[in-house]
Please model this.
Amino acid sequence: MRLSTDVLDPAIRVPSWKVSKLTYCWAYEPLQGTRKDAGAQVIIRRFSFFLARSVLLALRRERPAAVFIMGHMRCGSTFLLHILLTNPEIIACGERNAPYKSPQDFDKLEIFARIGQRVPFRRVRYVVDQINHDHITPNLELLQAERVRCIFLIRDPKETIRSILDLTRTFYEPWTVQRAVDYYCRRLETLSGYATRLGTGGQALSYHDLIYDTPSTLRRLESFLGLNQELREHYNIHGFTGKRGDPSGNIFRGRVVRNQGFRPVDIPAPELERAQQAYESCTRTITRATGTR
Model:
């Protein structure tokens, strides 16, 4: 399957399950018809959101905190999101790919996740999203809100570039090495800036930590989030798995996959050196800023 698009993270729409047609259509289905029809649908969606939020408040369901996995493409963010969902205190709807411009967007994330996981009234503490692109967080002040927890997740440049190229060849329009390195360096620079602004309110992880030191890393995350139950290495497959986030086959394994093979890729030395410098700089910055050892 190839998607003819210049943007790698298009808003993905998934089929609805009929718990609440009004609310679900507002959450996932694109606007259709004429401009007048679209305007009516916007009104319906806003009313649906207000109704859903009011019902949750009436049932004394406090707003959960948002956990943002702040990473880059092929860093393991989809895998980490699935691991976090092994705890019943946490919900998610996959990679939402919608910008966070106001606190209301946190409520939208919660409602999307409740609908997507079919847990409309469960008491939860956290709702998770994975954020791998700069345009998803245009309002940096929102990341500094008390309601937000940030987990920074980055991966070694050689593995990342190879994985990005493999992904785009398989599922999208192929990227060049230069394009992949440009994206990687730019994204790491953004993550460094976020970590510096947020300070000790975040947690820093590497892909290597997550995959090769999994038990210790999960204990760190449990402590960071103050969870009452342990996170598990084996996870469930959800309706959004493979659709909203990593589309590759490994995510359907339901467990850690430590030996991943990529097709041979020749990364020119200057490009690899540029990516390596960005990785080392970002690692130093987010480790120092978050106080993570």
About this structure: The longest strand covers residues 148-154. The chain is about 45% helix and 10% strand. The chain has two domains: 14-60, 61-290.
